[in-house]
Design a protein that fits this description.
This protein has 117 residues and is mainly alpha-helical. Helix content is 53%, strand content 5%. It has a two-stranded antiparallel ribbon. Helix 3 packs antiparallel against helix 5 and helix 5 crosses helix 6. The relative contact order is 0.17.
């Protein structure tokens, strides 16, 4: 949605998307996937990383931590990156970013709600 909107904001297929205008006459999508989750691409990445390890939890337990390294580090890096992006976007978009924050209360995963105040 975001890529198509960036290419052609007047695309009729995207007319259903709700947007909010920024101070610099740009538009932020506040509905669709971007209204549900601020970083839907990160959600997919985290799900893929953990899907490789979680089926083996029954056999591995928590005695051998090596298989958990990649999904743990990936999740940690994406949480840090979410925070950095949100801080940058607060400065860049101002009040329009606050509207998006109110619309989508989830960063990238429903179990990991991070409020940036």
């Amino acid at each position: 949605q975001r890529c198509e909107f960036a290419k052609n904001p007047s695309n009729p297929a995207l007319a259903h998307l709700e947007t909010v205008s920024t101070a610099g006459n740009r538009k932020l999508i506040v509905s669709g996937w971007w209204g549900l989750v601020r970083h839907p691409n990160y959600l997919g990445e985290v799900l893929i990383q953990w899907s490789w390890v979680l089926p083996a939890v029954g056999a591995l337990g928590f005695t051998d931590l090596v298989p958990y390294y990649l999904p743990f580090v990936t999740t940690l890096m994406l949480v840090i990156r979410c925070h950095q992006i949100n801080q940058r976007n607060k400065r860049k978009y101002g009040s329009a970013w606050n509207v998006l924050l109110r619309k989508s209360q989830v960063e990238y995963h429903p179990l990991c709600v991070l409020e940036d105040s």
